[in-house]
What does this fold into?
Amino acid sequence: MIHSGSGKNAADLRLCIDALDLAHRHKLDGFAIASSDGDFGHLAHYLRETGFIVIGIGEAKTPQGFRLACTRFEVLQPTPAKPAASVVSVAAGPASASVKIQPAEAPAVQSMPATVLQPLDRQLRRVILDEGTPRGMELGALGQKMRLRYSLPASSAGTSGWGGYVRARGTLFACDPKGPNAWVRWIGPGVSIGA
It folds into this structure.
């Protein structure tokens, strides 16, 4: 545990500082922000601009701005209350309070629609994760690597090339900005695949 000091939003500020420190000091693929507080939208937006995948997790009341700032947002569904809950005494300053602790149960997460991974999706994922950065990989470099590693030219992706292919599969790939300087990131599920 780390003491964040006192004052309005002290813990939130400390969490943001820690996230930025991790973003700049370590090689990470992304972040998960579990909060329904819309103020974390600024952090999510900055991390996305820096090239990280940001998965938001929160309640249905979470503001739209925070949801849109994330690569993907998962809504936690309330779990039905269990009739038999244990009671634990928790020290809260000079007095003590009783807190009900529900039996350990993972909250239900509203999942994203399932997407079938095609062999081409797996190959693209492998190249991006093996040879890219946390920001992903430049679209042009991705095309070169696909040709070198798998002998697949851009025509393998159809008439719109690699850019059109990954943009059409928005549940698996993020491709931005538009144009020749686009970067591609894997945002799909962590599927176990071969080399």
Observations:
- The longest helix spans residues 10-25.
- The chain is about 35% helix and 20% strand.
- The CA atoms of residues 74 and 122 lie 24 Å apart.
- Strands lie at 30-34, 53-58, 72-77, 86-92, 95-101, 108-109, 137-138, 173-176, 183-186.
